Amino acid sequence: MLNMKNTILKISAILGFTTIVLNSCGPKDNPPLVYFPDMYFPVAYDPLMKAEDAYSDHENEIPAFVKNNGATGLTPVEGSVPQNKDGIIAEDKLPTNPTEYNAGYDASKAITSSTLLAENAEKDIQRGKAMYEKTCAACHGVNGDGQGPIVQSGAYSGVPKYADRQISVGSVHYVLINGRNAMGSYAGQLTPGDRWRVAMYVMSAFKGGATTSVTATAPTAQPATTESTTNETTSPKK
How far apart are CA 82 and CA 29, in angstroms? Predict the structure, then answer.
């Protein structure tokens, strides 16, 4: 009889505890006062509609929204990196097979000037230096000798010296977009303009300034595959 009584008490205790847990986790019609309710009950804003405060009846007081007449679709934050601010059309036709890639790479060697404005060349090269040291030097080295810290650590090898390569500002730009051999594309890390700036810096710093002249009407780095045959006589292959 005592055992049965203890069993009933245990079952009752378990059921009571379960009821409390389920009720505490369930939805509340009248939730208690909490700090930062938007962290507990987030409300998605429609970027094309005026923002409304979900937790009070007064007008939304978020400064950025107020400044934008309540709309949540804001302009880029000051200091952030806008895409394609240089007015260069982003490359959207990438090679789909080795034949297209090789033809495009051969043709890119004939490109000896960037599409950036000539009067900004010095500033662009300085910007290219900064981007190169942040993005490329880990493998290629700050001196362009292929002895960056990753290579020196023994984790990676086979990075060639720029001085030993037959390249142009166009071919460097092409590789930044499409990658080459073990190097992947850096189109996601560099804006269209910065790809040209890095290519200009590479040629200026590691190839004796060869083919770094710029012009606003230079050809793009996505030449037609039919140009590859002509380029074989003017630009040696890598």
Answer: 44
Residue of 7 and 161 predicted with greater confidence: 161
**Residue 206 or residue 51, greater confidence:** 206
pTM of the model: 0.56
The 10s digit of each residue's pLDDT in 54-79 is 555 555 556 666 666 666 666 667 77
- What domains lie within the chain, and their CATH numbers? 35-76 (no CATH), 98-231 (1.10.760.10)
Answer for the pair 192, 88: CB distance below 8 angstroms, yes or no: yes
Q: ∠ CA(66), CA(72), CA(77), 5° rounding? A: 85
Express as a percent the part of the chain with pLDDT over 70: 56
